[in-house]
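Researcher: Please predict.
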Amino acid sequence: MQKEIFEQHIYKFKTKKNEPYIIDGGANIGLATIYLKLLYPSSNILAFEPDAEIFNILKKNIESYALKSVELIQKGIWKEDTTIQFKSEGADAGLIASLDKTVAATNSISVLSLKPYLNRTVDFLKLDIEGAETEVLKDIENDLGKVERIFVEYHSFVGQPQTLNVIIDILTKAKFRIYMSIPGNNSLNSPLMGLGSYCNMDFQLNIFGYKEK
């Protein structure tokens, strides 16, 4: 992930605004937040991370860079404000337990709807939320008109229905121009021979969306 962010610049975007408004959903240890803040020092960033242990690392990383106008929120993003069961995989991943019945929850986390945070133009919305992306996008579908650019990491889980078509449909209706790539070096040489899995995921896809002016 560090290579993707700092060498491949997957989150780089151009804006004429001096203080772009950015939402980092699934901030993890803060690499994307740090990159975006260095890209736009006067930006206002909201960073969400539900895992308590990872959140503490995130907080220390942001403090070590002495970054201003970064609000850290120790909650996950979901389709409603509630408390749900969560499976932590450390810095690699995490999963809302209800998304995969084969996963045993390790703790409870607080989650919230993103809708109240979309009451103004969002210059960049990043959603790397470990399988919650489809439900979240369905929740904020009518608010995406305020979002200028979006990144979604799609996660497909073994034995569960794939919802990539739902995501593409929502983004297309919101007038996003879409580009997709497979993250890291996760492409398969012979995918028709069967898919492997990582953290019970058999497929991941980076989805980028921007609106043509």
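Model: The mean pLDDT is 89.
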